Amino acid sequence: xxxxxxxxxxxxxxxxxxxxxxxxxxxxxxxxxxxxxxxxxxxxxxxxxxxxxxxxxxxxxxxxxxxxxxxxxxxxxxxxxxxxxxxxxxxxxxxxxxxxxxxxxxxxxxxxxxxxxxxxxxxxxxxxxxxxxxxxxxxxxxxxxxxxxxxxxxxxxxxxxxxxxxxxxxxxxxxxxxxxxxxxxxxxxxxxxxxxxxxx
Length: 200
Description:
- This protein is α+β, with helices and mostly antiparallel strands.
- The chain has helices at about 1-15, 20-35, 90-110, 135-140, and strands at about 45-50, 65-70, 75-85, 115-120, 150-155, 165-170, 175, 180-190, 195-200.
């Protein structure tokens, strides 16, 4: 699946797919996946509620719908979460990026085989070292970033103080996409453990 997602990213780089908003990106990815011969026997659905897979929302599971899910009647289940941010509310958005990882970890710990988080940003406020390099910024900004792991707290906004827990450790590696856009793609899979570092 990582290879297929990288091919989708290549389509963006080659200007075969336009970037305009998050739902557009989600829709384009679903169309692309449905066009693949490898996935012809699988359902590919958008915004599928987790209770369809007999998973209930709880304090540990921060969302109730999956951006894109791929499954059939066997145990093959993949969840993909997508974020597309151009500017504004940077610390809130960074926390949302973390929530997606937390959500995917919970899905994988329940019934899913793997999860993927695709994040695309345009503003360098998300990844460039600036005055503030503490807290969430230390995970996403600069060259010597800290791994994403452990208890993460929302620093501002309506959810200020909300906490989530990331079991594995993930290195956020921003890559060039097109123009001013950068992205990262993270694969979430078992086993979980605070000492397991996932490199990308």
